[in-house]
Amino acid sequence: MSTPPGEYYTEERWQNWLDRIAAEEIDPEDEDSARLLLNLQDDTAIAVAKIITDYQDADLEAETALEELADIREVVLSEVDIDDEEKLMLVDGVQTSLVCVFYAAEEYVAGGPPEEGTVGGYIEAANEAEGEEDLDAALGYCAQAGTLIIDGAELDREVAEDLEFGLVAEWVNGLDSLQTAMSDPEVIEEDDE
């Protein structure tokens, strides 16, 4: 077994990222700040990708994989304690993007990818559902797109760029991190500058 259970991602690791964000001047328009937020998101996506890969390689049983995913989700999606409102909103955006990553990973382990449909098709369906204010359906479609990405399908960046700002756009942003993590699950060093 490559990674001992409970070691895919720790509360301490997440907290280190939050401490960095709390300590630094964050300007979403600034490239370094944007990269820090993206690294926070990618780091979590990489941990999720490692669980999925270990599950695919039969190093993890489905039940254990789901427990590991739930443990990380609990850490990453818990309420964040940062005094700065703007930083809190930025971290909330990262958390929102990651919601779909967790759903997609859990869906993949529990039921596998859908037999029909494309990543783009599911994202379009999600976009329509969001337009009709059916957010549960929108998240479901995005998660299906995510299972296809885990299974090796490509997320077309143009599809993502055509989305108006909203939850689906945020979730697709998370799926983009998941796609990158699945193709190159290299750990992001917390002190990378």
How do the strands and helices of this protein lay out in sequence?
Layout: H1 11-23, H2 31-56, H3 62-76, H4 85-111, H5 119-131, H6 135-150, H7 157-161, H8 167-183
Helix pairs in contact: 2-3, 2-4, 2-8, 3-4, 4-6, 4-8, 5-6, 5-8, 6-8
Structure, explained:
The chain has eight helices and no strands. It is mainly alpha-helical and 193 residues long. It has one domain (11-183). The two termini are 31 Å apart. It holds the Pfam family DUF2150.
Quick take:
The protein is mainly alpha-helical. It has 8 helices and no strands. α5 (119-131) runs antiparallel to α6.
Helix and strand content put the structural class at mainly alpha
Q: How do the helices and strands follow one another from N- to C-terminus?
A: HHHHHHHH
Give the number of domains: 1
Which residue ranges are poorly predicted, with pLDDT under 50 across at least 5 consecutive positions? none
The rounded Rg comes to: 16 Å
Distance between the amino and carboxyl termini? 31 Å
Q: Helical percent range?
A: 55-70%
- The shape is globular
- Residue-averaged pLDDT, rounded? 90
Q: Count the strands?
A: 0
Number of helices: 8
Largest β-sheet summary: none
Q: How much of the residues is beta strand, in percent?
A: under 5%
Oligomer: single chain
Keyword list:
mainly alpha; 193 residues; UCP022079; 8 helices; DUF2150 family protein; globular
